[in-house]
Amino acid sequence: MVIDPPYLIFLGDVPDALAAKSGIGIVDWRPEWCIGQLRLEGCQADAGIPDLSIDEAKARGVKTMVVGAVNAGGVLPDHWIQPIVAALDAGLDVATGLHIRLASVPEIAEAAQRSGSKLHDVRFSDQKFATGKGSKRSGKRLLTVGTDCSVGKKYTVLALEKEMRERGMDADFRATGQTGVFISGRGVAIDAVAADFISGAVEWVSPAADASHWDLIEGQGSLFHPSFAGVSLGLLHGAQADAFIVCHEPTRTTMRGVSHALPSIREVIDMTIALGSRTNPDIRCTGIAVNTQKLAEDEARALLKQLAAEHGLPATDPIRFGVSELVDALRSI
Q1: How many angstroms separate the CA atoms of 120 and 126, rounded?
Q2: Are 30 and 185 in contact (CB under 8 A)?
Q3: Residues 224-273 pLDDT 10s
Q4: Cα-based angle 205, 68, 230 (whole degrees, multiple of 5)
Q5: Which residues is 245 bridged to in the sheet?
Q6: Where is the D-glutamate N-acetyltransferase-like C-terminal domain (predicted)?
Q7: Beta strand 119-121 pairing with 140-146
Q8: Count of domains in the chain?
Q9: Which domain, by its residues, includes 85?
Q10: Cα–Cα nearest to 43, from 74, 17, 78
Q11: What is the DSSP letter of 307?
């Protein structure tokens, strides 16, 4: 699958920035590819790039409109169909990470045929996966896990990859979600893989490698989330992680989309070791990554200091304060 940049990021009419995390993630990590955003009336997210109409985007050289909005279940709202059809009629390709194939919508399929534009369904893979085997494979692997979904697991591994490469370490980001695939150009959306093959798909994403090589595997969901724990467990077993980092958003009281309370960081560490040791008995927690965006800087630093002391682990906000300490902790593995 080759998705041609530059992009117009379609944000629809999502209610908040988290619902636009795919589009915002692409802008954050591939800003040179993102020419503008298209927002419908009522949109409460802003990727911080120019608002453009489809015609304006076409005039500025955009090749693909990327649907950068997400929602529970990955559905395509009926009122998003018209702007997708308009983009196709303007000669743009359209790419999405939703759980519905674009061509399954008659109006979209007809528009693509009419214009000759391409439809990219990033969440769907033609690759056939085996069931996971859990057999030891060479190389080193780090997995990000969370107290909830949408807490910074992808951003943490991307920040780690950047820092590790700058230090001359052999490290690769391994995408397991649609946004990560858009950013890296490779990977597989694990939550669209049939349950029996999730761990096998992660083994495929992160194959045997040189002994000094680090695969930095993007986590998904949370082992404690009633909606997504199945995906999280399959990913944990397939990753066969040597190290994991717990990601956390400190201002939440319940997990996103449900009424259940967040687990503690200690509960996540203990559960991840208990379940992850099935495929790697030496799995260990090497750090804590906290999304402190909603905290003042002094509050953020105080919280990180407290968490580091409480758990005996380096704690940082990867975007705000960097990941130097997290990388240092991997040197001994």
Answers
A1: 12
A2: no
A3: 999 999 999 999 999 999 999 999 999 999 999 999 999 999 999 999 99
A4: 45
A5: 144, 287
A6: 129-327
A7: unpaired
A8: 2
A9: 7-121
A10: 17
A11: H
